[in-house]
Design a protein that fits this description.
Elements (H helix, E strand, L loop, with lengths): L16 H13 L2 H8 L3 H15 L4 E4 L2 E4 L1 H25 L5 E7 L1 H8 L3 H7 L3 E7 L13 E6 L7 E7 L2 E4 L22 E4 L11 H7 L12 E2 L2 H9 L4 E5 H10 L16 E6 L6 H23 L1
Parallel strand pairs: 3-4, 3-5, 8-9, 8-10
Antiparallel strand pairs: 1-2, 5-11, 6-11, 7-10
Helix pairs in contact: 1-2, 1-3, 1-4, 2-3
Amino acid sequence: MSQSKKETPADGRIPPLNALKAFEAAARRLNITRAAEELSVTPGAISQQIRILEQHAGAPLFHREGRQIALTELGAELYPLLHDGFDYLKRAGDLLYRPNRRHALAISVPPSFAVKWLAPRIARFSAAYPEVEVWMSADMRLADVGGGRVDVAVRYGRGDYVGVRSERLLSADVIPVCSPVLLAGKHPLKRPDDLAHHALIHLRPGDLEEPRPDWPTWLSARRLDHLDASAGPRFDQTALAIEAAAYGQGVALAPYAFVAGDLASGRLVAPFADGALSTELAYHVLTKRSGVSEPARAFVRWMKSEAHAAEQRTDDL
């Protein structure tokens, strides 16, 4: 009488899922009763499912000594595969249900704004709105807010953008800043006249960027036109000019909003008490005229709150 053929991996068959679950729980706990409690069934049901799986295997999966069980060589080989498999299934379930709980938010901001203002604060928004997943793009091109490709944008200028709603967010008034090392040495920087002995760091605006307050304007406002404002390194992004100043390469004009953290930490100093230069330009937040999503509204409210708090601290100085 011929024996029935044992199934092999080449047959591509999968044993019953209930039997696999029962074995995985029993193997993980090495206890039939606890496995039954986990799966809300009886110990007898767990034992029955294990026997079914052992029939498929054609070999025992546990050594049984009274109420104690231990994995056989085959059981020990099978367990980690099933444990990882059920873990992947659970993660797949989390992924399937996640879109109903999380909301993607696409924002577009200038590079220097992203590095010097938004990045140090964004964790606070994520903590307040964990269900919103922020995707940030840092560039100076006008974002397609009206067309819906971007939910929220921040841009520097006069605020007169066509086809979108524009709200003033943050002042762009500038102040001279430098490394503390320039306050000492052969030519310590104490008065505006002392700039004659130090490099002026310039910002070269990009093609799509509004004009910014520059050194000739700053010096002219203080009747220091005799100082040479043409020499010095040039950068196309404010963040780069600020970093050059922090490394002692000269004095940069930067929006106070971008350097407040560096001033507070002592990494930068503002050498002149009356160094601020006002400008009509500012950073504005842009959204669609209608149909703005709740995550976008929440992000705008949060940014305006952060900006208000930052400017309050500036006024208190």
